[in-house]
Write a structure and sequence with these properties.
Low-confidence stretches: none
Strand content: 25-35%
Number of helices: 1
Largest sheet: 3 strands, antiparallel
Structural class: mainly beta
Order of helices and strands: EHEE
Shape: flat
Length: 80
């Protein structure tokens, strides 16, 4: 898994970001020993902003990023 990032919009508030983070903390359904979970406040991509024909292409908005790190190396494909 290495580092995974989960966005949460500003409208959900810090409580919404905490709710997602708690799933990866001790006692949460996705918790594994050794994981660290942090919450960063800043800019996140808007929904659909990666689609070139979208009206939100390339746009960002205020929100939270939940970073889950299990401190393992990132996955490497055997075909590379």
């Amino acid at each position: 898994m290495a580092k995974e990032r989960y966005p949460s919009v500003e409208a959900n508030g810090h409580e919404g970001a905490e709710r997602i983070a708690n799933m990866y903390r001790p006692g949460g359904e996705y918790y594994k020993p050794g994981m660290t979970v942090t919450i960063e406040h800043g800019e996140i991509p808007q929904w659909g902003s990666a689609i070139p024909t979208s009206s939100t292409f390339g746009k960002t908005e205020k929100g939270y990023t939940i970073v889950v790190d299990d401190h393992r190396p990132a996955y490497k494909s055997i075909f590379e």
